[in-house]
Design a protein that fits this description.
3% strand, 224 residues, mainly alpha, single chain, 5 helices
Length: 224
């Protein structure tokens, strides 16, 4: 188990209660589904639904209690190993699984204890190995910010501005808009003023023109 997975677990005094509750819920729900199907299949025709419900009511709490006992013993062994070794790693879980299996089979003799301890250790080793592999695959899928090359954009970072984003270290190559024009191709410089005093403007095709001068302007194109 990685450091992030170990950090997400409850501290040791409360871990026992957490594991007992989770194991009971898992055993009760899974056992309820299993015994409902099994009871309905074994019941006679016409009473399959009641047979499944009766089987679930009778066996699901028992299976949940067995899971709770296993979870409580496992958590106690795990906390004890953590206190003795002063560290948390996958070996604590593996040894705790083997110890729990051996304790639960103590009434059956030394051979049964050894077999149960071996099965518990192997199962916990497989679970821990799968957990480490899944965590490693998930961490390799997303690159860390420190792994990115200089100048590369972070794909996991939120956008800082709308629209097209400029590359890091580049400059904007967009051209500025052209200045407005005044009629026949004459361009008005930016920041300048339009001086129409003394200029002649033609409004009609018959040659009529108006002269703007001495403060008066005639805008009617068809004469007076």
């Amino acid at each position: 188990m990685t450091r992030s997975g170990l950090a997400e677990r409850e501290p040791c005094p409360w871990r026992i209660v957490d594991d007992v509750g989770g194991a009971f819920a898992m055993g009760a729900i899974g056992g309820g589904i299993f015994h409902t199907i099994k009871g309905s299949l074994n019941a006679p025709k016409g009473a399959r639904m009641w047979g499944g419900l009766n089987a679930m009511q009778a066996r699901a709490p028992v299976l949940g209690g067995q899971f709770a006992v296993w979870g409580g013993l496992f958590a106690c062994c795990d906390c004890s190993l953590t206190a003795i070794r002063q560290k948390e790693d996958p070996w604590n879980s593996i040894i705790s699984g083997a110890t729990t299996g051996g304790i639960l089979a103590a009434r059956a003799g030394p051979r049964a204890m050894a077999q149960s301890a071996l099965v518990g250790g192997v199962l916990l080793a497989l679970i821990e190995g799968m957990s480490i592999m899944i965590t490693k695959m998930a961490s390799d899928a997303a690159p860390l910010p420190q792994d990115l090359s200089p100048g590369a954009a972070d794909p996991t970072a939120p956008p800082t501005a709308g629209g097209i984003m400029l590359p890091i270290g580049g400059s904007s190559s967009a051209a500025s808009p052209p200045p407005p024009s005044i009629g026949g191709g004459e361009m008005l410089p930016l920041g300048g003023e339009l001086d129409t005093m003394g200029s002649e403007t033609t409004f009609s095709s018959e040659g009529s023109s108006t002269s703007q001068g001495s403060g008066q302007s005639s805008w009617w194109p068809f004469g007076k």
